[in-house]
Amino acid sequence: MAWKEQYMEALDVAASCRLAKEMEEYRSNPKLGYRPAGSRAEFETGERLKREMEAMGLSNVRKDEILVDGWEFEKAELTYKDRAGKTCRVILGAYQTDFVTNDEESFDLVFLGKGTARDYEGKEVRGKLVVVEINQRNEWWINFPVYQAYEKGAKALIAVQTGGYGQIDKQALNAQDIAGPAEAPAFSMSQEDWERIRECLDEKGEIRVGLDARSVVMKDVPTYNIVGEIPGKRPERMILLSAHYDSYFSGFQDDNTAIAMMLGIARAFLKIGYQPENTWVFCAMAAEEWGKCDTKYDWSTGAYQEIFKVHPDWAGKVIGNFNFELPALSNGNLDGIRSTYEYRDFLEECVKKLPALTPAYLEGVRVSAPIETWSDDFSVAIGGIPSMVNEFSAGPFMETHYHSQFDSDEFYDEAVYRFHHELYGLLLLELDSQAVVPLNFAEVFEEAAKSLDVIYCQKAGARVTTLLELLEKAQELSDEIYDRIWDVNEAYLAGEKMDLEKIREAEKKLLSVFKMEQDRFVRLNWSDEVLFPEEAAQNNLYYIRKAIRSLKRKNPETALEALYEIDNNAYAFQFSRSVYQHFTDYVFHQEAERLQWGAGRIVHHENLYDLVEGLLKKYRTGRTDVRDEILRLEAVEKRQQSYLKEDVDYMIKSTEKMLLTLQEAKQLL
Questions:
Q1: pTM of the entire structure?
Q2: Which residues contact 366 (CB under 8 A, 6 or more apart)?
Q3: What is the percentage of the chain residues whose pLDDT exceeds 90?
């Protein structure tokens, strides 16, 4: 316990908080903040963090250059005259798009409802500013109404959040990644400002306004991940700690406190003179919020570039990644760690052995899996590095303060911040002390088996019995290997001598299995949720069959509800064909470099735009002749069944390959 006690005593949480506050000073927009990818503010923040790493005594402090699409957002101010003729000024937020005025320019501003294709019927918006009211969490992402406005010739779109995000106050502005092209401009306006402007609209729903804005996207510019190390006794082996330093607005919680906590952990261990078993790498990631134009996967760019471009050699060397997000914010009485499946058993055991920590969570800590795509740990994991992140998305903050100007130290919780300094420093010590990486693959194979719908697979002619048998065998072998890993690590901690070179060879095999699982088992749906390869086709088949049954029963409304759930066809209900096609094609028809961590994660797609459009027309006019739609859906069903059969075959081959490597690892252990 000596090192643990010394570490706890050496923590200076107040210093971490001061650094988080200092980071707020670097801003692109003097009034709102913003520290986006490739901006001067991001660069200056990185320089400050580099100096901090050097001053505290980290080794090999460096700047890893990466290429991103950058963004400078300096200002966006709108003026209008109210009913009394008084000039009013409104501060707008912005998205990662191009829009530059020559001082203040005049535009007509028009309200277009939710910004769907139907909202434009009978409206001329060419050259005008379009205002729409949206809920990005529950309706659709910002890129769809923005691109719809762009195609209609609008000068720019201004989004007013009606809910989902920024709910804390009617003055809240909101910012998110745009997931769209730079040439389709977008801004955000608070509910309060919009209510005042809306009162001044004329009978056509328009008003003349002035706009003074500068928002510039810069293609392929350099930025830097800032890296420092604490050298270990086994330099061939590393542990990675990470957080991101770009931000929207002031970014105090997201993610200044995470950067500062990561460095606070390093500072405490340096202070007590601890030399780790493995080299600890502390990486301040750039461009997490956004970093690539016109891609569905435009965030986590800095982490993706670090793992796949700068250090692909880290796969097989780094035994774990602790990623941090919003660690000074309370999410209730129960804290959480979200990890890849393979680390859940180890983390749960570590949590049970923790000494008394600052009492911030009455119900303790829960470990859950798998990780999600919201943060950098996903990019790190699919690069072959087992990853985990403090649970940050479960509480109300994501809907109230997240990505708004209300992300400030007003909701700073010192006890929670100290708790997380303590928790992750101690977990770092536990992982560092392991002779062999404590990965348990059993849950992955168990969850893969659970994800299979046996009846659907059998109807598709898939070899589901063969796959289930292989998954069961892989699960049993994984349990045996983890028992052996546990014994080896216990013996190592007890001081027994062992052949570390042989163990390292076994570890490389285990890490290669982890990378195989990420490559072969991790897929995404159109909502960026993680799933197994066959699940997309299974889910589609469920809704296709529901739609067919509903049409046969003369219930088109239920059929349409089912079609809404298939792939990204929800957008076929609301937006034009060209908008739908653009945001479908850019997933399948651009280079992997731009798709980043999402490349190849969506394998199949069912384009139902024509079917949805035709069925909607019939539904609205009361027509019941749906024989053609039924025949088309039956053809879609057969196609999805073939996809399902292919996916099961793919999983069989993948599981067989992983079994062979697991057996090799077992022999070495």
A1: 0.96
A2: 334, 335, 336, 337, 391
A3: 93
